[in-house]
Amino acid sequence: xxxxxxxxxxxxxxxxxxxxxxxxxxxxxxxxxxxxxxxxxxxxxxxxxxxxxxxxxxxxxxxxxxxxxxxxxxxxxxxxxxxxxxxxxxxxxxxxxxxxxxxxxxxxxxxxxxxxxxxxxxxxxxxxxxxxxxxxxxxxxxxxxxxxxxxxxxxxxxxxxxxxxxxxxxxxxxxxxxxxxxxxxxxxxxxxxxxxxxxxxxxxxxxxxxxxxxxxxxxxxxxxxxxxxxxxxxxxxxxxxxxxxxxxxxxxxxxxxxxxxxxxxxxxxxxxxxxxxxxxxxxxxxxxxxxxxxxxxxxxxxxxxxxxxxxxxxxxxxxxxxxxxxxxxxxxxxxxxxxxxxxxxxxxxxxxxxxxxxxxxxxxxxxxxxxxxxxxxxxxxxxxxxxxxxxxxxx
Length: 395
What we know:
Oligomer: single chain
Mean pLDDT: 92
Distance between the termini: 8 Å
Helix content: 25-40%
């Protein structure tokens, strides 16, 4: 098949689509990605991509076409300009592309407006369009654009865009109910394909030497949706203990607020912000961890999703404790890789953290269980088998 992928984010930005597109090439397909200029998450164009550089290139067998976009920077105005600039420029470019693609795949993160150029190509050239929905709109927009009039407009826009897709695949089963009730989409044209994660750490030895300190770690984006503040609040409940530390690896729009919260709670000596790290350096950080923590907002449908972070954690083979709802909560319990409380329950999470410190033997099989479940459900091969079957069926 000749596949056109539309995604506002792509290499060198760190998203799972970076592995999916080359794997489709390895399977004999011709893949082109229509994307923007890399500037996520900090909002500044990556070095080497300014001034018209690398607008058309081939990386790992994937043809990448980049269009101009306003960088995210900071503030709601810049974010809106970022969304609209990609939509408009990619929409124009989509109408100029070769007409012989067999199918369009929109790898739909936020914003939902990245569907517009995918729809334009699909409609103009009469080829099917698959939306792989990772961020649920309009729900995901609440974090940044929660103004009644604007949210109402986004709801109408989201419904209009989704209903023009020939098929929608989702990363979490609860999304299907949302599409039925809120969007009014025909669920007979929907499927569930959970995200995959990289297997490079699956067979690494992350055993660490005991030094009397239990190291809890969160690794990933620090935005409003991730509710990393819940982890800090949980740590504050245990501030009298001298045998625990919380490591926060990553960056995002909430980092400054999280650092301020840490100072406000008087636990600067127990919470360490490591900032963004190179992917190749992450094994060293995971080796230091005894337990991996995961959290997500729980006051809307987005909180029912299963973030890709969970699958990545499972490859590390260490216990996972979470304050999270929906699919992630279910997977942690089903796989027996750790324990969970509901989203935002920092008191409950602190009790789980203390339980681990006091009863480590209860958790000694969690890491092995995590890796076993991952191999059975979340590898790239399993993901691409399902995706490829769906794409062929649509073509």
